[in-house]
Amino acid sequence: MLDEKIEILLTESETISLLDIPSTVTSADADGAEPVMEKHNRYAEVCSSRMTSETYVDQPVQTQNGATKDKPVQTEAPLRVDAATAFSILDLSDAPEPEQTVDISKAKGMDSVVAGLDSGTERSGSLISSTSTGCASSSQKEVDKFGTILNAQSDLQLTTMSEAFQNTLLVMERNILSSSVQHGLVPLLEDRVAELPPSLTCLSVFSCELSRGRSISSLAWNKKNPDLLAVGYGEPDSRNQKAGLVCCWSLNNPTRPERIIHCNSVVTCLDFSACSPGQLAVGMCDGTIAVYDVQSPDAKSQVISGWHPGPDSSIYLIGTREGVIHKCSCSNRQQFLEMYKKHFAPVTSISWCPLNPDLFLSCSADCTIQLWKHDRLKPVLGFATTYGSVHDIKWSPKAATVFGAVNKEQLEIWNLDSSFLVPIIVQPAAPGVTMTSLLFASHTDCVVVGDSEGQVTVFLLNNLSNGQPGNTRAGSTNASCPGNA
Fold first, then answer.
1. N or C: which terminal CB in the chain sees fewer CB atoms within 10 Å?
2. For the chain, percent of residues with pLDDT exceeding 90
3. pTM for the full model?
4. Coil/strand/helix, residue 320
């Protein structure tokens, strides 16, 4: 069989075109090259004369062709209620008496007096003669009293080291500090002046030694205690990733956090439980989701897995690095329900509207913000910024037309009732600091902003309903903080 001759016939198959991309470059030797070259020459002349010409001005323009709709609105005057409190002398008599405490400085002074009594008869006699003119029995009573106080001093040291005493000091410190910052955290109960433009007022800055130099990735308010703020620290995109850190801050104590939680990986997101306000869920860069009990001093955790849901617990959104947003369902894990395509850079944040569950906002590294309706594949509105990638975006829990966004250089507050083109408030970041996240307060007109230096700044929103197009830098002059200087 090896010597047998075998004939093999080779023929050419038909040419199959897999990809055909028309050329966008015209050869200089082509027949239609002259009109193209003339067009390029005219464009080059316009670009060269643009810098010295007074007829060209840079101005961003955005055209909105929204659907018109007639909608009647009727408002009622706000209700006012007078409240009064009565206090009688019986409340003082029925109040519990405070526990008697021993002054440490007086105890030390009495200790030196007793030591002088034991040093010698002459010194003791001179001391007794100089302090009292009574009989020897009265002097003996004083010595017994000093000995009783010395025993109380040893008991005082045990009391100061107890856990109950440390908790009492923590509450006392919080109350003392709250009296100094309460005037800024609670808005004044006066009528706002209609002529004043929107602005931001810096109230306080939350920072400690552990958080300095760490970028803030997420913020969350406690559902039951609106004065408790959880802050997650970490840089997911950094090559030299540090261990994750979570700090629970109280608005009454900006000097140090109430709870400090060390995580094994960088923190990417966190939120408090609505059913159990003492439980804090933390998502990490390595895919771990841990639940911590912040009511316990050691903050024990349980590891679980999950995702970020929208208003419907069975529907959730996923932003991708390609700029596509996927709408997914818990009941259908094989495929996506919808695909929202508008961004051409990585999606950095998605936020559902708390007052309208059909709307959500998305921001991206392509310097744009898109407003979506979940049953439409094209955005309803688009907003552009000229200051680079938008890092985070959040809706206001009080107004469906107000939202905030942070980018590398500034904080922007948008009010769609005033303008679709420009924000009504712009707060620049401190030099060398990048704003990374923000969150609106649900119980006050405040917004908290986290930056790349680990600081959390609280701003008060003033006259937000009085915004007019063009007042874009109204709050940039009165919102400076000592912590950002």
1. N
2. 3
3. 0.52
4. coil
